[in-house]
Description:
The protein is of the alpha+beta class.
Amino acid sequence: MQYRQYILSTVSILLVSVLCFIVRDSINYKATALILLFAVSVIAMLFDIFPVLLSAFLSAVIWNFFFIPPQFTLSISDTDDLLMFFSYFFIALLNAVLTFKIRQAERRARDKEEKEQTIKLYNTLLNSLSHELRTPIATILGTVDALKEANHNHKLNFSQQMDLLNDIDIATVRLNRQVKNILNINRIESGILKPKSDWCDINELINSILQKIKITEGHIISFINNDNLPLFKLDIGFTEQILLNIIHNAVQYTPKKSIIKIEVTYESKSCKIVISDNGNGIPESEHILIFEKFKRLPDSKAGGTGLGLSIVKGFTEAQGGTIVLENNTPHGSIFTIKIPAETSFINHLKNE
């Protein structure tokens, strides 16, 4: 890669020199020195130190040979010109070295800032995970111990045992969701997302998702089958994770008894899914930032890793789709997902 820098820096100096030589009658050789020095400065901002040193040395030789009297010789008869030549050579080299040092310092500062930001983000993740993973694990372990002790002492009736088993079920679902989110964000960052499209009855998919949601905290989730929809050819797993994360966020971050509404339509050769709620909403200034990894709203309640919506965005875009967040009226949020998809009605699919 560096040989290209040698070639480009050499060609650049030669090109500037040729242009200066063509107009040598209009500018004197002292002005030419300033032009060549400017060219070296530009090269120093773009390339590594050794190609820049080469361009500085080459420009000094060319300036001496082609421009300083007597021309077409390396000898310099005038003392002032000799001092000017050495000054030019020194300034060109110094300019190259200092510019390179400045670029190095900027790169180190940028790398340090990125490293600090990365550490901050992963500290946020670890702090969140310490709660999000510890809580369900502690629930599972504590409930299992309670069941063991109760089974040994015969203290619990069937209904109480079922309540404890339900607690384990809820904690397991929560734990599974967090582990999936961690694995999914890793897939998104590694760039290995490859959607596998298959025919999907979106009504059936949403109904199955709603059955999987164990905790609604008194929320009302409204979904009415749209029987006029065709079958969509999309990645069922990706779409399921998109819907699960948005619905889970709506349940977690809206007040109890909030209404979460899901609507699906076929629009412009796309599957359009709109999920709205009448909660407190998200400030408009956060609408774009909310999809960033580890992003959580100020004063949001404890829990959550800030990965859910970044996964939603990643899985949507992996299918060539878009997601838009808007404010609901009079309050709340609206997530609109559009996923381009091939469609077919059931009677057509049977004949294929």
